[in-house]
Amino acid sequence: LIIPLRDTRHRQLLHHHRHHHHHHLQQQQQQQQQQQQQQTSSFSHIAHRRASDKPNPKMADQDIEHYLKQTHDRVFENNRRWAEEKKKQDPNFFVSLSEGQSPEYLWIGCSDSRIPAEQITGLEPGEAFIHRNIANMVNNIDLNVMSVINYAVRHLQVKHIVVCGHYGCGGVKAAMTPKDLGLLNPWLRNIRDVYRLHEAELDAIADEDARYDRLVELNVVEQCRNVIKTAAIQQSYAKNKFPIVHGWVFGFNDGLLKDLKIDHKSMLHDIQKLYHLPGADF
């Protein structure tokens, strides 16, 4: 069989074109993979920087600007990946999320960056209404927390209210520090009042760390009591038998939550001797 030279040349060119195109696609894929790996490595590096790598007076201005840009961009990169992953798991995830919220829980926690409520509880977006402040305080003259409680109970109709503290709380330790802390003084005074209420028990604990840990627990209990004092809680419980108030403490050493076993009904009964409100009988 004799193949015309023209056809042979055409086939050779076609084969060369296909090979070149395939090789070009491989190169593009490799470049994309390398870029993704570099980005991942870069963001991972930022995430695990040592304290000494962070901006300090000895760094050049351009280095500080570069650091700030990287740490800013990292959040958006993480957000993009999170959104993509959610859509892979459930294509209708964001459609459902945009329709509204109906959380079962109100979470009142500490502002400490190491205690993200959803992550340590395994809850998804829309399952918990979150409020955080220094040392997870519930102060009746704090319009922020009072508004959150009122909205969560009367409008969202949450079934559980969790006050969650954590061992090693900087706010609790600061409250026991004999020095002027400026604007924090009136805020931390509430924790000192908790110590005053339980002074005999706390002073009997010889170990300082153990005493701080116990104060963390007692502070959570007192904040639970402050939640139950509110009209929204008393009236909702009388009508619906919910929400129930819980006191929990998070431990950094094992990552577990400790339930302080707050007896909601008993605490409410005791509180109503002094804080009884019309329409709050149960």
SSE map:
Layout: H1 5-47, H2 61-89, H3 93-98, E1 105-110, H4 117-121, E2 128-133, H5 143-154, E3 160-166, H6 170-175, H7 184-197, H8 199-203, H9 208-228, H10 231-240, E4 244-250, E5 257-259, H11 264-275
Parallel strand pairs: 1-2, 1-3, 3-4
Antiparallel strand pairs: 4-5
Helix pairs in contact: 1-2
Structure description:
- The model is unreliable at 38-51 (pLDDT under 50).
- The chain is of the alpha/beta class and 282 residues long.
- The protein has 2 domains: 34-46 and 58-100, no CATH class; 101-275, Carbonic anhydrase (Beta-carbonic Anhydrase, Chain A).
- α1 (5-47) crosses α2 (61-89).
- A hairpin with a 6-residue loop joins β4 (244-250) and β5 (257-259).
- The chain has a 5-stranded mixed beta sheet with strand order 2-1-3-4-5.
- The protein is 58% helix and 10% strand.
